[in-house]
Amino acid sequence: MTGVRQTLLLAQWQLRRQAQFLPLMVVVQAFMAVATVIGYGLLVGDPDPVTALYLATGAPTITLIVIGLVLTPQLLSQARTEGSLDWLRTLPVPRTAFLVGDLLVWTMLALPGMVLGVLVGVWRFDVDLSLAPWLVPATLLVSLTAASVGYAMASLLPPALAQLLTQALVFVVLLFSPVSYPADRMPGWLQDVHAWLPIEPMAQLVRAGLASEAFTVPGRSLVVLLAWCAASVVGAVLALRRRA
């Protein structure tokens, strides 16, 4: 119970530390969800039912992924640069508590944007969703994996390089990942790359959870997603211990 209490206290400290920025983060999430739905809608015009489902389920997925892969490493890199992360490491708590506490915060921050993305997508494209009973744990897994990868990236790379990489990832997720469109629209080599990256499995899991009657999750995608989640968590923990 001591470890759980320490983790919750660290998460509370992180929330209070970012208290002045939390409203802005919520606004940014809301804007991202709405802009993704409306923007893609302008590009495709009046989509067919399948395309509409891809767009409606892609917006909340993009919100989850961007929070984890972009916002998490940016804030962690800032903490490393300003020295607050070094101060935290002086506290007599396990290194894993830092990681779990931060991942809890980023997962909580990612969920409101996803809900808004779902609502706006349903309204804009007039689609009928069929929610799977495992949607909530699937969403938590996607959010946790994205945040874990972002945390590991910011822990292992120099802060400047990590922040630069996050900017590139925004374009990769929005334009060159099969989140809001089928993978078969991409070149073959890019399909092969995404077969080993976590972005497509994340999108498949959320898509199938929101529209279970139209989409399914391949077993291989779930294995890839779990492998990335486990590897990124282990990498972040090892980096925290090594740099203690």
From TrEMBL:
<keyword id="KW-1133">Transmembrane helix</keyword>
<feature type="transmembrane region" description="Helical">
    <location>
        <begin position="97"/>
        <end position="122"/>
    </location>
</feature>
<feature type="transmembrane region" description="Helical">
    <location>
        <begin position="54"/>
        <end position="76"/>
    </location>
</feature>
<dbReference type="Pfam" id="PF01061">
    <property type="entry name" value="ABC2_membrane"/>
</dbReference>
<feature type="transmembrane region" description="Helical">
    <location>
        <begin position="222"/>
        <end position="240"/>
    </location>
</feature>
<dbReference type="GO" id="GO:0016020">
    <property type="term" value="C:membrane"/>
</dbReference>
<keyword id="KW-0472">Membrane</keyword>
<dbReference type="InterPro" id="IPR013525">
    <property type="entry name" value="ABC2_TM"/>
</dbReference>
<feature type="transmembrane region" description="Helical">
    <location>
        <begin position="161"/>
        <end position="181"/>
    </location>
</feature>
<feature type="domain" description="ABC-2 type transporter transmembrane">
    <location>
        <begin position="7"/>
        <end position="209"/>
    </location>
</feature>
<dbReference type="GO" id="GO:0140359">
    <property type="term" value="F:ABC-type transporter activity"/>
</dbReference>
<feature type="transmembrane region" description="Helical">
    <location>
        <begin position="21"/>
        <end position="42"/>
    </location>
</feature>
<protein>
    <submittedName>
        <fullName>ABC transporter permease</fullName>
    </submittedName>
</protein>
<keyword id="KW-0812">Transmembrane</keyword>
<dbReference type="InterPro" id="IPR051784">
    <property type="entry name" value="Nod_factor_ABC_transporter"/>
</dbReference>
<feature type="transmembrane region" description="Helical">
    <location>
        <begin position="134"/>
        <end position="154"/>
    </location>
</feature>
